[in-house]
Amino acid sequence: MEVISIKLEEIAKLGKTSVSTVSRVLNNKPGVGKKKREIIEKLLIENGFYNKVYKISQDAKRIALVIPDLKNPFFGEIVKKVTQIGKKKDYEILIFDTDENYENEIDITNSIVKGNILGVIMCVVGGELSKNNIKKLQDFSIPFVLFDRELDFYNDGIFLDDFKAGFLGTELLIKEGYKNIGILVGNLKYKNMENRLRGYKGALEKYNLNINENYIYEIGLEIKDGYEVGRKIFSEDNKLEGLFSCSNLITLGLIKYQKEYGEKIPLVAFDNPDYFDILDLNITCVTRSVSEIGEQAINILLRKIDKNTKNSQKIIITPKIILKGSEKR
């Protein structure tokens, strides 16, 4: 206890504040301004105070993997691959699930900078707002690698060519003879969703087809969102002939609605999770190698940690099509 008391006094002196103010910051209590709190937190971290309080070993080899939704099979596969490789390299992988919530991402980032973590693999949830959290990692010299969702000006990571994915999925439906094609897309604050929508529009433009804004359904990324958009689509008086779905959980929700109400529409999905085959859904999809993304992400990060380098590396994965017949009438 004496060590902590002395340390608090030292931090207070360095921060030109009182011991009680430092204590409030340490215990996450209100009553300290944002700027002063950030100064004190940085001093606490730089002086290894959190490591002593929470008994974090300086020799621990920890990597944080921050994902938006552990229920999504895509992120589950990422976790599996990253932990497999991490274990072989004697790294402990700490899994953080933001639950698609930016406030959670802020809290997790704050925990990471306090936790003697050597590096971070992250799929952001705040869109461009997440730059604030990435900057915080940089301020504390914590190497990071992004995956799946890009951020402008940050080139460290592994991503899909999402424009091409949107283009290929839409083009496949066009080649089946459909002209009125819709898209089910997640929140457009995410760069990957924005680019898939751009690919969809690019395919329509290439084949001189009109872009009908009423056929662009921007929705959430949960099964329930796919179900509800199915209800909306099949209750509307529209001329939709085919759909490209930008998320596996959206697709599952849509199919659930179709099966319950006996509806059907030509469909191309994004991703090819195992449960599509387990449920014998036979869904044509635009997909990528999920294990490759996980493997590349942790290997890039380990090189940064081992070589203590800030060199950025950006890898773009090319999508591929798996034909199973759902694109046909």
Automatic annotation (TrEMBL):
Sorted keywords for this record are: DNA-binding, Transcription, Transcription regulation
GO MF annotation list:
DNA-binding transcription factor activity; transcription cis-regulatory region binding
Family matches, as InterPro entries: HTH_LacI, Lambda_DNA-bd_dom_sf, Peripla_BP/Lac1_sug-bd_dom, Peripla_BP_I
Pinpoint the HTH lacI-type domain residues: 5-72
Q: Keyword check for NAD, yes or no.
A: no
Its name, as the record gives it, is Transcriptional regulator, LacI family
The major lineage groups are: Bacteria, Fusobacteriati, Fusobacteriota, Fusobacteriia, Fusobacteriales
